[in-house]
Amino acid sequence: MPEFATLDHESLSSAVYGALCDALIQGRFQPGDRLKIRDLAEQFGTSVTPIRDAILRLANEEAITFRSPRDIRIPSMSESRYREIRAIRVKLEGLAAETAAQVATSADIDCLEQILRDNERAIADGDRLKGTQLNQAFHFMLPEIAGLPVLNGILRRLWLQMGPLISDAYIPGGRAMIDHHYPVIEALKRHDSAAACMAIVDDILLGGKPILERIEREERLQMMRV
Amino acid sequence: MPEFATLDHESLSSAVYGALCDALIQGRFQPGDRLKIRDLAEQFGTSVTPIRDAILRLANEEAITFRSPRDIRIPSMSESRYREIRAIRVKLEGLAAETAAQVATSADIDCLEQILRDNERAIADGDRLKGTQLNQAFHFMLPEIAGLPVLNGILRRLWLQMGPLISDAYIPGGRAMIDHHYPVIEALKRHDSAAACMAIVDDILLGGKPILERIEREERLQMMRV
DNA sequence: ATAAGATACTTGATGCATCTTTTTTGGCAT
DNA sequence: ATGCCAAAAAAGATGCATCAAGTATCTTAT
């Protein structure tokens, strides 16, 4: 069970929500982990009310599920669900990349290149957490550059659902995780929408391979257990 | 302020949430309407807790916003936001239509045709509410047929945000709202993915015209007021 | 009559008590 | 040892009291 960052947002509810989101996206929960409102309340040092608020919000976006009315858990993802999310990401991040390529300024490009440099260093240092965070930052930067906040929110929700899977899936991936980020930047520099879209799609499909393999491995285990 | 359907779900919270969703999707709130937790609690005959739960969930998906920490309102949509949502719908409903075309059974087709027949009758009867509901049912049936539940959830959230706009936008639209549904069904019958995608895209772009005009009208009014 | 300040009210956030249902546990019989 | 049933503990749902912050209203001095 992870420890959480300190609470410093607008309200306790949203602070807890933010902390839980971070924990999910960083892969600090495992599929199947059970959450208890009272336990979390103790860990956060609040009453149960703000925790409930946060849990309900997360449950609403299916980052957490109620297996039964009193059993709150991190869901495990089926292969078909992951494939669906991947297909959605291909369409939406493709749109983001296309649009970003049309409007990207040199400052935007600089920002992306900085992220990529930091990511290279994190991978060289073997800092898995930082690596996944920077990978994520790169992906979220594209809808940002494109000026598509709604799309950004949708992707954030999808990432929340994938979080528990990526915790260790990127160990074998190594730097394959970011190889496809370079063509994205090149395409943005040339304002080449089609190339930007293709590059990010490649990244999603190939970069997601280790995740798919992990899911298949886990589903095989499920089978054998039954 | 609308009246709400009776509560009959699993829990009071989700019942209230469902009722508020229905009200939003049916366009029974207007942009700018203010919600008060205590008032809603009285209307629903519950305490404030389930209402808060529902409101927080809706706020999380941006179907309602907290203008200030104590001022809960139905947001009005900017033109750029609507255009973004439309672009996202084009990608996602396009994907749903493509996939549905590959897997649709004759039972699925029958279901779509039934919806379309009912929709024709509703329009002929001048039943605006039923018309918009059936239009929505048609759109939600495609990801259902395609077996894409995540996509369905995303679209549901987007519809929640558009709900307050469509209440009267479809009056001038008349039956233009469903003209493009026929080519969709034809494409599904032929298992023609590309045609299905194109047809639904046409429907989104052309069917959404009245909504865009309403937004432009309201933004002009906003201008003049300032 | 008007404007500024003070008072009362409104309203969401938080904490907490209680209720019902589920889950766990302990003991007993096989 | 194992499986089953009952009692106890756990846990989320609901209701409600209180708090703090914002809003409206009323008073009062000019």
Structure in words:
- The structure is a homodimer of 226-residue chains.
- The first copy, chain A, has 226 residues and is mostly helical.
- The first copy, chain A, folds into 2 domains: 12-73, Arc Repressor Mutant, subunit A (Orthogonal Bundle), CATH 1.10.10; 79-220, Four Helix Bundle (Hemerythrin (Met), subunit A) (Up-down Bundle).
- The first copy, chain A, is built from 11 helices and 3 strands; from the N terminus they run αβααββαααααααα.
- Chain A has helices at 12-25, 37-44, 48-60, 79-103, 106-124, 128-146, 149-173, 176-179, 181-189, 193-207, 209-225, and strands at 34-35, 65-68, 71-73.
- Chain A has a 3-stranded antiparallel beta sheet with strand order 1-3-2.
- In chain A, a hairpin with a 2-residue loop joins strand 2 and strand 3 (71-73).
- In chain A, helix 5 (106-124) packs antiparallel against helix 9 and helix 7 (149-173) packs across helix 11 (209-225).
- The radius of gyration of chain A is 18 Å and the shape is globular.
- The two termini of chain A are 27 Å apart.
- The model of chain A has no long low-confidence stretch (mean pLDDT 89).
- Chains A and B meet through helix 3, helix 4 and helix 7 of A and helix 3, helix 4 and helix 7 of B.
- Chain A binds a DNA duplex (30 and 30 nucleotides) through residues 11-13, 36-38, 46-50, 52-53, 55, 66, 68-72.
